[in-house]
Amino acid sequence: DAGVIQSPRHEVTEMGQEVTLRCKPISGHNSLFWYRQTMMRGLELLIYFNNNVPIDDSGMPEDRFSAKMPNASFSTLKIQPSEPRDSAVYFCASTVGGANTGELFFGEGSRLTVL
Amino acid sequence: AQSVAQPEDQVNVAEGNPLTVKCTYSVSGNPYLFWYVQYPNRGLQFLLKYITGDNLVKGSYGFEAEFNKSQTSFHLKKPSALVSDSALYFCAVRDLNTGGFKTIFGAGTRLFVKA
User: Which residues contact A51 (CB under 8 A, 6 or more apart)?
Assistant: First the structure.
């Protein structure tokens, strides 16, 4: 299995630029999660989808953040415009939906640095 | 609201000695509890979970965890620590009040195993 695939692994950008992070979940997994990890705040759930539908986006910090899941094999997290405080590692994770006992499978993360 | 607490930022143990990483939880209803490990510059990896049944759960890499309902704890243990166990460990709870898909993570405990 290829696992959860995220791109890019590293992104350095300047304040005000648009950033798009991408995620391909494990085939057959129909729940997808976006987390953000920082030293100060730990792991924060930003948004999660079930069957491509956003279920809970209460963790999205502000309107500059948006996420989409146009099909079962692809999701994006967009930040526009980016700010230095958005610097973090962003993780995508997937699991088999329907049964809520399944563990999460994480990608390797996208490390974002906003200058 | 569901939550988990990891009271120790860091745990130090000598190689060959037993290790314990502590976790307490607060949930309404039956808890679904998980442990994950994160190595440097990597995504989180699932170690073990408690859903129901035997209070002692065995997982990957020789780790186990004991569910204690009266103490609302789910401590991670290993009889004999290895230097390679040095990593960041996260306890997590599944929030069943939101459809069962939302996973909330503790702040993490850094484990150092000294040779």
Answer: A30, A72, A97
Q: How many CB pairs under 8 A join A and B?
A: 61
Whether B103 and chain A come into contact, CB under 8 Å, resolves to yes
- A18 contacts chain B (CB < 8 A): no
Cα torsion B62, A27, A60, A38 to 10°: value is 40
B23-59 pLDDT, tens digit each: 999 988 788 999 999 999 999 999 999 988 899 999 9
Residue closest to B4 by CA, chosen among B99, B103, B115: B103
Q: Does A95 touch chain B (CB under 8 A)?
A: yes
Question: What's the burial of A37, exposed, middle or buried (CB within 10 Å: 0-12/13-18/19+)?
Answer: buried
| Whole-number pLDDT of residue B2 | 80
**pLDDT above 90 coverage of chain A, percent:** 84
Higher-pLDDT residue of A91 and B96 is A91
Contact B42 A109 (CB under 8 A): yes
